[in-house]
Design a protein that fits this description.
Layout (H helix, E strand, L loop, with lengths): L6 E5 L4 H11 L8 E5 L2 E5 L1
Antiparallel strand pairs: 1-3, 2-3
Protein name: Glycine cleavage system transcriptional repressor
InterPro entries: ACT-like_dom_sf (IPR045865)
Organism: Colwellia maritima
């Protein structure tokens, strides 16, 4: 099993979690353990 750690940060906007999850699913990945944060108008996702 291969593992990869991904962190994303950007302006918070509607649909960003859906977009990230679709990309991960398209590559047969999963994100069972992740952290989502909203920081002063920015979105931070760590997996």
């Amino acid at each position: 099993m291969n593992h990869i750690i991904i962190s994303c940060i950007g302006a918070d906007k509607k649909g960003i979690v859906d977009t990230l999850s679709n990309v991960i699913n398209e590559h047969d990945g999963n994100w069972q353990v992740s952290s989502l944060h909203h920081l002063s108008g920015y979105f931070l996702w760590c997996h």
